[in-house]
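Worked example 2:
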Amino acid sequence: MNFFQLGSKDIGIDLGTANILVTIKDKGIVLKEPSVVAMDAKTKELLAFGQEAKEMLGKTPESIKAVRPLQDGVIADFTATQLMLKAVIKRISKRYNIGRPRIVVGVPSGITEVEERAVEEALLQAGAREVFLIEEPMAAAIGANLDIAEPSGNLIVDIGGGTTEVAVISLGGIVVSNSLRIAGDELDEDITNYIKREENLAIGASTAEQIKFKLGCAMPQAEDEKMEVRGRDLGTGLPKTIYVTSSQIGQAMSESVGKMVDIVRMTLEKTPPELASDIMGKGIILAGGGALIKDIDKLISTRTDMPVYVSENPLECVVRGTSKTLENLEDLKTVLTNSRKR
């Protein structure tokens, strides 16, 4: 009997700080939404989630609370996370008739047992039959098609919204890993603070994110691009428009980007020599949304003297890894951090 005879009833989730992605066996990725919920401030009833809720951030009256329930890769607001997961599972259950699914979910490698239990609990209460946790760098490595079972070293760097995860993987296990609670969100904050300090202008989180996507870079660019930015002048309190350039934004992000590169170097310094020489041959693999920052691969390569490659569709690596884990759950049992049954 196939361990997973209910194939289509099982789902993989990348419960990210910035985005939540869901995959169903044989259907691929069926949901990709920002990890944001809007709820009634009094009754705590869900009003919207995903993109619809994200558009409300910073624009709600007192009666509505729009929040990002995960911070630094872990649950910061349990009620909001539960509401979001229930809404996600309800939406895909309706569309794909999945009943009570088994779920494989990606979690940061630096997560505590209390945080692990919070994720399990939220999913079980949202309607899961069983919950399996997999560390994000492991899921990202599987999703990036690295051969994790071989007795050979692979180095994966997963830069998400809340955490940067670095792991050396060999023989189906993580040999060395580091988790840094500095990633995409921190870069948005750096941009907000820089513009406040240098231009005396207050901008919202979504504006900062747009600036990062358009002008964010890890190394100085040959051609300085610029972008129009609207915000509130801190002197007059009135709306104001300014222009910012990619060199300014590179400067704003440089300290956090430097810390991300340092954690890659620290992980390499702790790597056993045999595995380090494997990595030297294969190169470092980047996954997660942060892998899309202009020239971050070049910067890591310069600082580590190793080839660096951005995986295909880096944003989807973790969720694709959960999907592949579902397909081979028996063989990949060892990569799961828990196997608790309901």
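The domain at 7-139+317-335 is CATH 3.30.420.40 (Nucleotidyltransferase; domain 5). Confidence is low (pLDDT under 50) at residues 1-8.
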